[in-house]
Amino acid sequence: MPSVRTVLVTGGNRGIGFAIAEEFVRQGHRVAVTARSGSGPDGTLTVRADVTDAASIDAAFIEIEAALGPVEVVVANAGITKDTLLMRMTEDDFTSVIDTNLSGAFRVVKRASKGMLKARFGRIVLISSVVGLYGSAGQVNYSASKSGLVGLARSVTRELGARGITANVVAPGFIETEMTAELSDAVQAEYKKNIPAGRFASAAEVAKVVTWLAGDDAGYISGAVIPVDGGLGMGH
Question: InterPro entries from the xrefs (predicted)?
Answer without folding.
Answer: KR_dom, NAD(P)-bd_dom_sf, SDR, SDR_fam
